[in-house]
Amino acid sequence: MKFLAILASCTVLSAGAAFAESHVDKSDWPTSFTVGTASQGGTYFAYGSGWANLVAKELGITGGGEVTGGPMQNMALVHTGEAAFGMTTMGPAAESLAGTNPIAPGLEMNKACAMFPMYQTPFSVTALSSSGIKSVADIPAGAKIGFGPAGSTSDTYFPRMMETLGVDFERRNGGWTDLGGQLQDGLLDVIAFAAGVPVPAVSQLEVQTDVNIIEFTDEEQAKLLEAFPVSEFSIKASTYTTLKEDATSVSMWNFSIANCDLPASFVKEVVNVVMSDNERMVGIHKAAGSTLPENWDKNKVLKWHPGAAEWFKENAGADIPADMIYGG
């Protein structure tokens, strides 16, 4: 009897779910979609293609990831509707809204709306222990600092951050592995990373030599939080063998974006597929460990898509002001 009661209950729940789904008006839904990611081999491509395939399977429509130039281009593609969805960081998002996206200078890309939080890109600073540089204040005037590949998020924002903190430097660019080698050879004084941690180049340096992982002071962190679209971040001591305790830093959040004119019911269902099962998302990419409903508040730049805002209000208790919702 108990088994029959449980079976009956499950049948009612299943019928209820099917009934609810059948009453979602899909008449204005697109028949296919693309997600703007970045180059193959990077986190964006793996993460974006993964959730695109998941959504396509769950909602029964055609969809997939598309190779792009990354956050700046994704803002442009989603704004124009060439891509239904995309992925961006808060910095490029802010620049695109202000009309300073280098892809289309002067165009305010306000048709790209926030959809759901993805994960953080931390900013971290490393120097050789032999340099004596243990803090940002220790960086000497005219120091040669490697900021990563030209045009990257790191190269776009870290130099400005250093200037905000009063550091005088010479700018150097290159791949992270190459910059790590230059630091070890004494050709650079500091390398400044905006990348997921642990940064492989830093981990490799730890094996080969003694390094200092430089954290920001509370005052320095506060200055950066005020001046840039970044959030508080703590690099866990377990991240590097060099660290003895957590290190204070900042990070720039990555958010999935949707064209603001997409049907609210469609975007709400997409968000539900991604946000309702984090274990499934982590199976797609470990970075999705931060793809959690409570991180909705990390968006302080983009207006929310109405469908996404509705989902987070209903499922995460999100207190999203009306003026931060597109059309509100």
UniProtKB/TrEMBL annotation:
InterPro entries xrefs: TRAP_TAXI
Keyword match Metal-binding: no
Keyword match Signal: yes
Record SUPFAM superfamilies: Periplasmic binding protein-like II (SSF53850)
Leader sequence segment: 1-20
Protein keywords: Signal
Coiled coil feature spans: none
CDD domains linked: PBP2_TAXI_TRAP_like_2
Name listed for the protein in its UniProt record: C4-dicarboxylate ABC transporter substrate-binding protein
